[in-house]
């Protein structure tokens, strides 16, 4: 059996409600498509019935390969595991497992791939999510775009089609704190955005907690920008300038006008203010140091508990 042309990759964390519907839609896509397609599902340490459903699926349908991680590692790592074991020779189609990213768009994305694009990423036209979440996302993407050294497209997530060579480069990037949409932009080649309307989640709740979203945002900011550290330098310069002006003013008052310097409260205020500024500065540097710390350990990014697939794949070059 030769390798499929396309791998569809979907990470799943407690998606018992969505999974049957996902399978129905994926099957429909595969049945209609002239391409040979495999589906790679990754169980990110689900605590519900997701893993059981996946096991049955992998044993009954040869087109599915299912990977079970040893615990919950988070969306980005689950995706990484999926990309690592995808066998698609032409392209990898990355979607969410909750059907917010319509798998039917494969045809349109693949067409762009055939036109010569290595990365076809989805751009959200409209989000059917809460106002708060929409505003937070919108702010985040604009912030990160303005400070990042890679050209990050606005309003696009991990939903994309990437060519085999881009996938192979991603696999060579051992970054521990992963922000795949940023890494994808960094790789370069020809990239293009396709607009789509992001559906609301049909079943269940978002599996991203506030803490996880914050970590994702931090990964985006600290892994793709040196701006925070530059801000510290600038703050330092501004502070020194203010201090110098103040010193000159005090000296003039003392020696020209013979005033006694006053302002105990002002002094206290300035001390408190700049202690705060220094703590923030330390925290920002700490963020980078922490990243070095975790990366220096060189641990594997994830541990696989089990892989179930019926078809033997041919080893890809470089494996
Ligand atoms: N997900 C995962 N591990 C996690 C959290 C989420 O594999 O720790 C999966 C989840 O099952 C879904 C996808 O990542 O298929 C996107 O997550 P979610 O829909 O919760 O995020 P949102 O769409 O709200 O950003
Ligand atoms: Mg979702």
UniProtKB/TrEMBL annotation:
Keywords: Glycosyltransferase, Membrane, Transferase, Transmembrane, Transmembrane helix. GO terms for molecular function: glycosyltransferase activity. The chain crosses the membrane at residues 231-252, 264-290. It is found in: Membrane. Its EC number is 2.4.-.-. The lineage of its organism: Bacteria, Pseudomonadati, Bacteroidota, Cytophagia, Cytophagales. It comes from Spirosoma flavum. This is Glycosyltransferase family 2 protein. The keyword Nucleus does not apply. Residues 7-167 form the Glycosyltransferase 2-like domain.
């Amino acid at each position: 059996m030769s390798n499929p042309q396309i791998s569809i990759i979907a990470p799943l964390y407690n998606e018992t409600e969505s999974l049957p519907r996902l399978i129905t839609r994926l099957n429909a896509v595969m049945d209609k498509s002239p391409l040979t397609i495999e589906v790679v599902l990754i169980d990110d340490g689900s605590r519900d019935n997701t893993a059981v459903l996946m096991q049955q699926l992998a044993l009954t349908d040869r087109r599915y390969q299912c990977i079970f991680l040893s615990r919950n590692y988070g969306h980005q790592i689950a995706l990484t595991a999926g990309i690592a074991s995808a066998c698609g020779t032409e392209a990898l189609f990355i979607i969410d497992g909750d059907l917010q990213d319509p798998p039917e768009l494969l045809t349109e994305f693949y067409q762009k791939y055939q036109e010569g694009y290595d990365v076809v990423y989805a751009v959200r036209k409209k989000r059917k999510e809460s106002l708060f979440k929409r505003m937070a996302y919108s702010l985040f993407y604009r912030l990160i775009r303005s400070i990042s050294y890679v050209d990050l497209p606005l309003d696009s997530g991990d939903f994309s089609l990437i060519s085999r060579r881009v996938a192979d480069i991603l696999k060579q990037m051992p970054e521990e704190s992963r922000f795949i949409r940023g890494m994808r932009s960094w790789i370069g080649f020809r990239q293009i955005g396709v607009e789509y309307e992001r559906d609301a989640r049909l079943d269940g709740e978002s599996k991203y907690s506030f803490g996880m979203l914050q970590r994702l945002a931090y990964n985006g900011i600290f892994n793709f920008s040196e701006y925070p550290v530059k801000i510290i330098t600038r703050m330092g310069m501004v502070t020194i300038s203010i201090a110098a002006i103040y010193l000159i003013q005090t000296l003039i008052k003392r020696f020209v006008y013979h005033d006694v310097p006053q302002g105990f409260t002002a002094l206290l205020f300035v001390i408190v203010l700049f202690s705060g500024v220094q703590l923030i500065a330390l925290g920002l540097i700490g963020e980078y140091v922490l990243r070095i710390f975790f990366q220096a350990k060189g641990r594997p990014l994830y541990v696989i508990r089990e892989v179930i697939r019926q078809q033997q794949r041919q080893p890809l070059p470089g494996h």
